[in-house]
Amino acid sequence: MDNYPIPNAEAARTLGEALRTVGYSEEAVSRLLGDEAYSGDREDVPVGERRLPRTRLATAVRAFFLQLPVSRRDAVSALGRRGVDALAATGLAEVGDDLVPRVRILPVGDLLVASDDYPKETDDDKKPPDYVAAYTPTSRLCDSLTPRRRVGRALDVGTGSGVQAMLAAQHARHVVATDVNARALAYTELNAALNGLTNIDCRRGSLFEPVTGESFDLITCNAPYVVSPESRWAYRDGGFQADELSERIVRSAAGHLADGGFATLVVSWIAGDVDEPDVRPLAWTETIDCDSWILPIWGSDPLDHAATWNDELAADPERFGDALDTWTAYLTRLGVRWVSEGAVVLHRRTGRTHTTRVDEVEEEDLEDAGDQIQRAFESRARLSELGRNTKLLEARLSVAGPMRLEHELEPRRGRTAVVAASVQLAEGTNPIVEAPPRALEIVAALDGAASLGDVIQKSAERLRLAEPQTSRFRREVLDVSRELLELGALKFV
Ligand SMILES: C[S@@+](CC[C@H](N)C(=O)[O-])C[C@H]1O[C@@H](n2cnc3c(N)ncnc32)[C@H](O)[C@@H]1O
């Protein structure tokens, strides 16, 4: 790879200011290129190009979102002479009669993130080993599942472009960002300056080596977790056998968490039994002093796994076929029947017993879930302290966010009967819980005004329930309340 990026902090700061002054932002990209711009790929570039008006902002979008050349004159008009000089000084563009971008600069929330992303050659297969990706679906996953409360010290392992480190730097006093890839750390330094962030400390080394003996209030790691027989790309192949890299990350993160700290780890795990896909992360989290939440998002058999991670070869059937055979043979040797990818979230807590739960998450349903995750772990800690159901009956609970209550109706003997019901937290991971309709109706309306026991008693009277129906009703409400507390859909008031 040519010698870029050059982490020239002053030039990066100047460039960041120039891009913000011209209005280069996520909102501007969506306004000019449409709401689907972020999910588009290279084939969409010619269409996007033709949508752009002739404005200074459009010049920035053309150069840094679509990664197309612009004339030097247009570049100077959009970014000023100092902005264009900054591009040359950071190596982010070749500057001659035309300005030819070498990198993509993606607005992500309030941040600007430079990375290799779509190289000019447009051929995935030509990506160099130290290629640095931008904000990918796994980056989004890590971001969405990270609690964003204010903290002292944060750590981002495998920082790549530095995007998770920069997101953390907005709510942490100090952030350490580590990577084995020197180009990744150059991008991270450059991106920090591009965004005016001065609280990120970049350290080179493998996994947790650069932070031996240190502890953190927040740890993020969107790991190079792909279970792969190759060591082709630093961002994809961790170079460890099977899912050993993921196991190390989960165990080491637990060891580096300060009391009360959270870790959001995007990892993967293998299974020899399709019906028991999560045995391994359950074992990893059994012996650490943390509560944990295992969130499988994508799952595939060995062949689909091989196809997904080699799709850059799909246009060349022979090489694609060879890769499929090599990868599936590797997975077969390891006894793998299923590969899961997702997140393991940890919360370090003093206490003798710790809890784990597994919940599948749909990628399309996932929104920012940091607050939900924090609430869910707080409730789990409280539930462990409370112990028995009688204590939970004394607690006041309320819904924690917007809830969606659904009834399934069926005509029966001339009447419409409610045959099933579910309640969904309409935010975060959007979890759905099914339960008896009468229990859900109560729980979805909890407002913390009275204890759960009183609410159940009043409802039982209103429904004219006698014993033993009242006891059954109480159990139903308690079960669904526990479940919704653990999912962060209900909260203690
Ligand atoms: C999937 S990328 C994630 C990048 C970025 N954190 C994000 O969320 O977009 C994984 C990163 O881990 C880095 N990496 C690979 N092996 C590593 C190791 N042994 N220790 C630390 N980082 C490693 C890669 O260079 C790459 O930047």
Summarize the structure in words.
With 493 residues, the chain is of the alpha/beta class. Strand 15 (403-412) and strand 16 (415-425) form a beta hairpin. The relative contact order is 0.08. 38% of the residues lie in helices and 25% in strands. The mean pLDDT is 93. It has 3 domains: 9-102, no CATH class; 137-366, Vaccinia Virus protein VP39 (Rossmann fold); 386-492, Outer Surface Protein A, domain 3, CATH 3.90.930. It has 17 helices and 19 strands. The chain has helices spanning 9-21, 26-33, 45-51, 56-65, 72-90, 137-144, 163-169, 182-194, 244-256, 279-284, 302-308, 317-333, 370-386, 389-394, 437-443, 452-462, 469-486; strands spanning 70-71, 93-95, 98-101, 104-108, 111-115, 151-157, 172-179, 200-204, 216-222, 257-271, 290-300, 338-348, 356-358, 396-399, 403-412, 415-425, 432-434, 447-451, 490-492. The structure holds S-adenosylmethionine (SAM). The site of S-adenosylmethionine has 23 residues, from helix 6, helix 7 and strand 7.
Brief synopsis:
This protein is of the alpha/beta class. It has helices spanning 9-21, 26-33, 45-51, 56-65, 72-90, 137-144, 163-169, 182-194, 244-256, 279-284, 302-308, 317-333, 370-386, 389-394, 437-443, 452-462, 469-486, and strands spanning 70-71, 93-95, 98-101, 104-108, 111-115, 151-157, 172-179, 200-204, 216-222, 257-271, 290-300, 338-348, 356-358, 396-399, 403-412, 415-425, 432-434, 447-451, 490-492.
